[in-house]
Model the fold of this input.
Amino acid sequence: MSATAPPDHERPREPGPAATADERLLHTSPLKKLLGRPELGAVVGAAAVFLFFSLVADGFLRASSLGTVLYASSIIGIMAVPVALLMIGGEFDLSAGVLVTSSALVSSMFAYQMTANVWVGVLVSLLVTLAIGVFNGLMLTRTKLPSFIITLGTFLMLTGLNLGFTKLISGTVSTKTIADMEGFASAKALFASQLTIGGVDLKVTILWWLALVAVATWILLRTRFGNWIFAAGGGSLAARAVGVPVSRTKVGLYMGVAFCAWISGQHLLFSFDVVQSGEGVGNELIYIIAAVIGGCLITGGYGSAIGSAVGAFIFGMTSKGIVYAEWNPDWFTFFLGAMLLLATLLNSWVRKRAEATA
Done:
C-alpha cells in the first residue's frame, strides 16, 4: 500500500535566495557604499570650494595659509562635532554659541576673584558648563517641549547672565586679565598653544578638533551609544519600544555639546587672557550650518562626525579664501547661505541616488 503524500505545508521546500544567504553578508558594491555615506556631498563641495579659491586667490595655496584655514575650521569644527551628534539624535542646541562664552567667563572670573590658580577656575567652569548641558537635556526630556524652545530660553538666559554678572563683578563688559596668575602658562599650552609641523604653524585647537572627530566617529559606528543616537533621532517612540534609553541618550548628547563648549571657551580665554561678555551670539547657527553642510538631516537619524568636520573645513576655506582673494568680506554671509542651500540640495540628491541603487 503506497504511503499517503504529506500535506503541502509539510513538504520540504527548495531553499530560496533568502535561505541560502543572510542579506547582511551579501556583497555590496563600492559605489553603493560610497553613495550611502552622508558626508559624500560635503566632500564634493569641499573639493569644489578648494579648487575655486585655488584659482581665484593667489595666496590660498601657501603653507602659511593652510595653517590659517585649518585654525578657522577647527574653531567651528570643535563645536560642529557634538552639534552634529545632537542633530543625528533629533535635537538642536541654540545656546551652544553663548555657552562657549559662559565657560570662558566662569573660568576667568572665578580664578580672578578667588585669587586662585587658574586651573581651579578651569575645573569649576567644566562643572558649571556640564551642569548647563544636563539642564538642557533634563528640561527637554521632562517637559517634552521642542529643543528649539528649550535651548532658545537657555540662550537668552545665558546672554543676560554673561553680561549682567560680568558688569556686576568686573564693572565693565569684559573680564580682568589673568595672564600673570599661577597656572596660566600650563593652561595656555593645553588650550591655546601653537606647534610647527613641516614649516606650517598649527594651533593646538586643530589637534583637539581631529581628536574629537575620531572619538565621535568611533562612538557612532562602534558603540551601543552610537546605535542609540541613530535610533533616538530616527524615531524616539519606536526606539523606546525596543529598549533604547532615549532620555539618557539625549541628556548625554547635551552634555557632549557642553563639554566641547568648555574646550572652546578655554581656548577663547587663554588665547586673549580676557573675555568680552557679548561674544558667541550667532555662532550656534554656524555650528548647525556646518553640520547640515556635512550631511546631517534636520529631521534627525542621519549624518556623521566626519561630515561635520568637512562642513567646518568648507567654512574655514570660504572665510579665509574671501580674504586671500581680496574680496569685500561683507559678502561672506551670502556665500555661506549659498553653500548651505547647495550642500542641502546635493546631499538630498546623493541620498536619493543611494536609495535608488540599494
